[in-house]
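During data preparation, a discrete fold description was generated, and the record follows.
___
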Amino acid sequence: MKIAINASAELLHADVGRLREHAAAAAEDGFSGWWLAQTGLIDALTVFPAVADAAPGLEFGTAVIPTFPRHPTMLAGQALTTQAVLGDRNLVLGIGLSHKPVIEGYLGLSFDKPIRHLIDYLEVLMPILADGRADYDGEAFTAHFESTRPTERAPSVMVAALGEQALRVTGRRTDGTILWMVGPRTIEEHIRPRMNEAAADAGKPEPRIVCSLPVCVTDDADAVREAAAQIFSIYGELPSYRAMLDREGVDNPGQVAVIGSEDEVTSQIAELERAGATDFTALEFGRSTDEFARTRALLKSLL
């Protein structure tokens, strides 16, 4: 299993220079990749070329870009331009539906028929990335488009898929799924079998399953889990994440976070791998510089 870093917590500072330093440290420490969410006013795809020279060897991935605010033709152009600047570096274009309260409450857009939206989005996005053209009339998106691509190398596409329908669409059409707040039981019993079945039916290889969770090495696991439950409480309320926590049999996000001593954290990450995760992207979390340092040291030891 590949071990990478989820740098999304750094977005709270809205500082590109700080992100550059964070990516450089991840590369120096030998991690496989560096993943960044699309939130706030920092554009994740724009960040990658800005930090790439300081972070050699890293795979870059968005985890994830919401689809509703961006037409797939526009996102395809941005992703291909980013890939062109990165050259031979691997870029994962991670996309997701986001959530009804965000799309309707914050943006004033309709969240109607999200699976239809996802299917139409991919029907436009994928051929443009691959060939620079799309000829599609859909319910949510239509595109009759052709243009010269800035690179022959198409980014890998993955979807933040949790529900059964989304997993089937993702397995058939993309390279895998990007998970957040999903535990090992749910990966083994729900995510992996549905993804693999859909991919097999489409004649595709087994998809990547990128699992991201908060991680903290600590001597006071109970207190840190309580803190995680409070800090990440919104994920216990949003319906798609709540459904995954219920499948896992836990009450709150703190109970799926990877927290404990060095041995306990190592065991929890190994359990995720046994469940079917192909990649683990750690969102480092802690209450002190010592906990952050111990967490990074433990993650490095697993490489």
User: Anything to note?
Assistant: The CA atoms of residues 185 and 202 lie 26 Å apart. The longest strand covers residues 208-217.
